[in-house]
Amino acid sequence: MSFETGVKVRFADVDPAGIVFYPRYFEMLNGAVEDWFAQALGLDFKTMHLDQHIGTPTVKLSVDFLSPSELGDMLTIRITPQKVGRSSCAILVVFSGDGRDRLRAEVVLVCMDLKTQRSMAWPETVRARMDAGLIAA
Length: 137
Description:
- This protein is α+β, with helices and mostly antiparallel strands.
- The chain has a single domain, classed as Hotdog Thioesterase (Thiol Ester Dehydrase, Chain A), CATH 3.10.129.
- It is built from 3 helices and 8 strands.
- It has helices at 22-39, 45-51, 124-132; strands at residues 3-8, 54-55, 58-65, 74-84, 88-97, 100-110, 112-113, 118-119.
- A hairpin with a 2-residue loop joins strand 5 (88-97) and strand 6 (100-110).
- It is globular.
């Protein structure tokens, strides 16, 4: 059960050649993770960060750039949990558009107590929803 969201490649996202400047993909990826938490996991970033003092830093990021994206492209971003631990979650993120994959990223997020700057267990409801999205290995 993957989560999907979409994004349009805007002028601010591209370099002079008209293709996505690679750091912009990371901003799009972070926005998709924020959407995933709010829409699929039931915990929006405002509540999580400001009210509950929980962060989700990225501790590992491995990316393959498969095909360029251009100004005006509509991209689908699919997030699929791969492994959920006590305080970490490995996800696969795939950007696609016009029938081809553009970017594939393996990401590890960690649940962190923002006050102590230490890892902590995922809130139970979030963890249960992450587990529900796991792909059978």
